[in-house]
Amino acid sequence: MGSIEPKKPFEKIIIAGAGPAGLLLALLLSQHNIPSIVLESWDRLDERLRATQYGIPATRVFRKAGLLDDFRAASITSFPSICWRRVSDHQRLTGIDLSVVKDDPDRMTILPLNEIIKIIYRHCIEKGNGLVEIKFNHKVVGAAQDANSAWVDVEAGAEGEVKEQKRYTADYVVGCDGATSTVRKTLFGRDWPGQTFDFRLLVQNVWYDGFEKHGWDGGNYMVDPDYWGLIAKRGKGGLWRVTYGDKLTGLSDEEYLIRRNTAFKKLLPGHPGPGQYKITQTDQFRIHNRCVEKMKVGRILLAADAAHVCNPFGGYGCMTGVLDAGGLADCLIGLYEGKADESILDLYADIRREKFMKFVDMRSMKNMNRIMNTDPDTVLETDPFLQLLKGLEGDDVATKAFLLKHSSIEYDFTQHYRQT
Ligand SMILES: Cc1cc2nc3c(=O)[nH]c(=O)nc-3n(C[C@H](O)[C@H](O)[C@H](O)COP(=O)(O)OP(=O)(O)OC[C@H]3O[C@@H](n4cnc5c(N)ncnc54)[C@H](O)[C@@H]3O)c2cc1C
């Protein structure tokens, strides 16, 4: 007679949002035989111009999920240096040579987010053991719970079609539905502690041979009170990403685009006019640094941008979201496999929120203030971080140690598993 499997502590997870956090969580859970349903409001995966780089802590989660080889194969091959430049004369102030870690398996991952999402999606379908069900055109409009289960209400159907009202029930609901999260609003209303910045961020994919001709670094933080941003090589074959802030408020999207020619002339090497470069895609964003009071209420949890958002300078947003997804997966797996009790989910919520509040919020603000709110002529002397980088120049051993040091935003939840 075969032995009867003990009943598992839960059966299924509902995940709102098929962004990087939602898909990664679903994939990691499937690798431990935990089924999930991912509900995505759009009819497709997100293609907007957002994240492009993910620091070492995120790389480690990508490897654990079995994604890293595919990310590396799709990524640029030459590993860049990053520098800080004054906009007025394009003077390189200081920088850091990332090529010293080019052979380190943990090095930063560089790949536009739309490609990251596509690869995670493909892994969910092909390698998710048939346990990841992804439903497009399924917009979560509310979430609720009782003592034994949690559920979401959904409007299902493509744009222009009559919508079908559906309810999906599971043991837990995880809101990975991004900065405008409906799951978060259901729990806490529209209030969200933190700040929204006055500027508009313009992001574009650009083909321009001047970057290479002028020998610019792979990543260039542009320091200036009026024209500040990040210019970075991001795609194979010479595709660059130009991101800058426009401080004027209240303009229409078209009006911001008209002002772009002037910004590009100031920012790009060689000061080119519009006929000299080709912009293939552009997006505009409002930017916030905000965090919820709680990342868990009963059986409903929040992860990544649904729980906290930050400005993109320094690449903290998605990296932190990936750490949330990886951490929450470890907690749910521990619970499912009987290695932890439900209190591990409270630990997830408290610790991941603390990591954001204590480190991510502050560091991302410093990164942004360094390029937009300092005097470009004196920032090298006044900014401790740039001073530190200046001190590392030419010292490969110290640079490598700096780049690979443990990050305080990581946390290993498996240390709370029961000792057997
Ligand atoms: C210009 C820019 C540059 C950035 N650069 C970097 C970078 O280099 N490195 C970095 O680490 N981070 C960066 N970020 C931040 C990063 O893009 C985000 O942190 C990351 O995308 C968050 O992932 P997520 O899965 O939480 O949310 P999202 O990527 O926003 O995904 C949420 C998903 O949920 C879906 N959804 C929304 N509402 C609902 C609903 N009601 N029902 C069902 N589905 C819903 C959305 O359609 C979407 O597919 C950048 C951001 C910006 C704006």
Q: What ligands can be seen in this structure? A: flavin-adenine dinucleotide
Q: In whole angstroms, how far apart are the ends?
A: 27 Å
Strand order of the largest sheet: 5-4-13-14-15-12-16-19
- CATH level-4 homologous superfamily of the domain at 13-77 and 110-194 and 290-372: FAD/NAD(P)-binding domain
Q: Helical content, roughly? A: 25-40%
Averaging pLDDT over every residue, what do you get? 95
CATH class descriptor of the domain at 13-77 and 110-194 and 290-372: Alpha Beta
Overall structural class, as computed from helix and strand content, comes to alpha/beta
Unreliable stretches: none
Report Rg.
Answer: 22 Å
Major beta sheet summary? 8 strands, mixed
Overall shape: it is: globular
Report the sheet-strand fraction: 25-35%
CATH architecture of the domain at 13-77 and 110-194 and 290-372: 3-Layer(bba) Sandwich
With helices defined by DSSP (H or I, 4 residues minimum), what is the helix count? Answer: 13
Please give the number of β-strands.
19
Topology-level CATH name of the domain at 13-77 and 110-194 and 290-372:
FAD/NAD(P)-binding domain
